[in-house]
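Summary for the steering committee. The consortium agreed at its last meeting that each partner would contribute one worked example illustrating the joint modelling workflow. Our contribution is presented below. We chose a case with several input lines so that the handling of multiple components could be demonstrated. No manual editing was applied between input and output; the record is shown as generated.
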Amino acid sequence: MSTSELPLAGRVAYVTGAARGQGRSHCVRLARAGADVIAIDACAPVAEHNGYAAATPEDLAETVALVESEGRKILARHVDVRDADGQRQVVADGVEQFGRLDIVVANAGVLNWGRLWEIPAQQWQDIIDINLTGLFHTVQAAVPPIIEAGNGGSIITISSAAGIKAVPGSAHYCASKFGVVGLTNSLAVELGEFGIRVNSIHPYGTDTPMGNDLSMYKLLQDHPTYIHSFSPGALPTDSLIAPNDISDIVVWLASDASSLVTAAQIPADKGYLKI
Ligand SMILES: NC(=O)c1ccc[n+]([C@@H]2O[C@H](COP(=O)([O-])OP(=O)(O)OC[C@H]3O[C@@H](n4cnc5c(N)ncnc54)[C@H](O)[C@@H]3O)[C@@H](O)[C@H]2O)c1
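What follows is the complete predicted structure of the assembly.
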């Protein structure tokens, strides 16, 4: 396939939470499909109650190298999704450099554990501020230039299986990820007249630092009955999902192959949500 025949040739994508895990995989796969990339990550500890290590500047540098090795351009910056001005600035700079904006992958997120009536208010606030209000800032930064470009577009929000089926031990996270669904579907209706599609993806346990968070096991030890809410899927589930398999869905939603799909919740769960 020549470069101009690639499904996302000439398009530009904005990806949040791009330093590692699913975000890095999405950057690489969007680049391989022909898109240039604007990428942000906090690259620092973001939520005091997380039980897993934060991403680093070296992680984001690795994403940059991987995108460039695909032959595409990338503008990467250390920006926290809670920083509305920072998101607006990097999107504006990216549009100036690359000429347009077509695709958003709102992927940055955090997860931590605790029963709702026992967690500190700050733990609740950090999750809502990052997973939900951070997405609001992403939308405010990215939507005007996508409309302005006049080419339609695709906004992909990363919710969770826990944004469709609530699980115990992370009600604050579930609330944020259910919130992502409401935002996604309202926005899809508002942006339909501009030919811009908005859909959410709902991964189940995925092989990233978040997905391997061992602090979840402490919660399950303390409350063994909670395990029933974390059943296997319909397909064989001997391992966590590979980020690359989520990226298959991201690239499809970003491309014209999904032109009929908007306001949809796409599970990436091996059938877990139906069990
Ligand atoms: N891993 C799973 O099992 C799983 C399952 C369902 C949904 N998800 C969702 O997938 C998305 C990606 O998670 P992942 O599994 O790749 O986890 P991860 O922790 O490996 O990566 C998340 C990235 O987002 C960045 N980030 C977090 N808070 C940020 C902030 N405030 N500003 C900017 N960047 C920030 C982190 O630095 C990190 O690089 C998240 O929204 C998560 O909730 C993950």
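The pocket of nicotinamide-adenine-dinucleotide is lined by residues 16-17, 19-23, 41-42, 46, 54-55, 80-82, 107-111, 130, 134, 158, 160, 203, 205-206, 208-211 (CB under 6 Å). The helical segments are 21-32, 57-69, 84-98, 121-149, 171-191, 215-222, 243-254.
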